[in-house]
Amino acid sequence: MRFDDSAVLHRVCTERLGDKAGRQFAAMARRGFRLIPATDEAPATGLSRLGGSALLEPGTPWPVLDGVPLSAYAVLDTDALAAWLGDELPVRPGLLNFFHLDPDIPYEEYRELDVYAPEAWRVVPADPARAVETAAPEPARRYPLRLVHAVGVTMLPDCWDVEDDDIEFDGDRHWGATSLILDAMDDLNGNTAGSHCAFGWPDTSYASAVTGRDADGPAVHLLQLAEDAELGWGWGDAGTMYFTIPARAFAEGDFGEVQAIGRCC
User: Fold this and answer.
1) Which residue range forms the structural domain that includes residue 87?
2) Which of 115, 119, 215, 258 has an alpha carbon 20 to 30 Å from 241's alpha carbon atom?
3) Per its UniProt record, what Pfam families does this chain match (predicted)?
């Protein structure tokens, strides 16, 4: 759920959920971005991009899974995003390169690879002052370059990323907090997948959570990639790819703990 105005967010939450539950839900808001194609009127946000080459420091090995190179999907320039994220960006990792296994070879040639292994995806930081354009080695798939403009928005979790302890609800009317959000937020209940987003909360239209939890709370959402015919990628029927990281690992700058989650109809 995305809002351009945080005051509207708080008003909508209290009007639909009541004062207490509304304030509890509004307190879960996070800052994030819509990633739209860059234009003269909306120039590229730093070095942020979808597709194209990776931006890696010289000598950085290209990530592979059992010798098969991953494909480069996106780069986020966190220095350019930092002003809006504020305290929600506890580290300054510079550039974040996002990779996933997607080789341009017949499936039969890599079907025995463990596509759910942590090495099947990777987020690699890079110093923007030292990073250079690095093309993917074959047989990694190469996607066309799209520079992006990051539009700052405030996001609420969708119904599936809310747990019962997060929000007060009437147990006689609702089977859980998810049920309350589905009912009361109605058209804003999170069924808004279909766009590219960074940070904040993921948008989903699937009946399952994306941001897992541990003792430190919900995972941090880094990137949402929607099916995109122009870029030439997709993950099943109306599929979406999400990259998340445990809150502790994010605070420590340990991007080795990133998880990639695919969802499709």
Assistant:
1) 30-155+192-263
2) 215
3) DUF1963
Residue predicted with more confidence, 41 or 113: 41
- How far the first Cα of the chain sits from its last, in Å, is 19
Q: How confident is the model at residue 25 (pLDDT cuts 50, 70, 90)?
A: very high
**200 part of a folded domain:** yes
* Cβ contact 41:116 at 8 Å: no
Measure CA 167 to chain center.
24
CA torsion, ordered 162, 83, 49, 246, to nearest 10 deg: -40
- Locate the DSSP E strands across 127-219: 132-134, 146-155, 197-199, 213-214, 217-218
DSSP for 26-84, please give it.
HTT-EEEEEEEE--SSS---TT-EESS-EEE-TTPPPPEETTEEPEEEEEEEHHHHHHH
pTM above 0.85, yes or no: yes
| Cα separation, 93 vs 95, whole angstroms | 6
- State the pLDDT at residue 54: 98
